[in-house]
Amino acid sequence: MNICSGLLLIFILISPSTSFSQKKNPLPFDSMRNYTIPQSWENVAIKEISGSELLEQIQNRPKKLNWVVIYTAHCSGTEYMMNYIKEMQDKYRDSIEVYLLSSNNYSELESLQKILFKYRVEIQPYIINKSYGKYGDQRKKGVKLRNEICEACKKDVIGVPYNMVFDNQQNLLFHGFKSYQNNLPEDFISYLMTQ
Length: 195
Fold this sequence. Notes:
By secondary structure, the chain is of the alpha/beta class. The protein has helices spanning 3-14, 39-42, 51-60, 76-91, 109-118, 139-149, 188-193, and strands at 47-49, 65-71, 96-102, 125-128, 162-167, 172-176. It has a six-stranded mixed β-sheet, sandwiched between helices.
């Protein structure tokens, strides 16, 4: 074997088409990069929001439950939460108001639209406004807003999707993660609807 054929053999062994160089476990939204949004969903307006604007909206549209979900597009828990949001929205449409707040940076608006379309979540989406800063760890923007409107939330760890549920008097009924370090059943919205 001469040097050229030896290099060719090495090239074949380490070429990108071999299985060891491919991702084994893609992130949940890697498939969204090539996902096409139908024209009817392209103009879904993702509005900016601040903590004070959020509280004002909750006050002006009081339902039995006002559910705030802070999320990022690329968190592995977001996919699961979107399914739960859709299920609860369909089940309690007249009794809950869902506020879907993205902690992503503005450069990812298209990814956010794709997620909403994929899961058929028909809720006015929001992006936490620029006044909360821009971070490499996008969850930090959500934590700043969360801590601004919820004193009890300040003790919670950083993470998304993060939930805050208020009653129609703006009393905090629940804050935290869906099935992590809380005493409520996994279907916490249905549980709170019965209280």
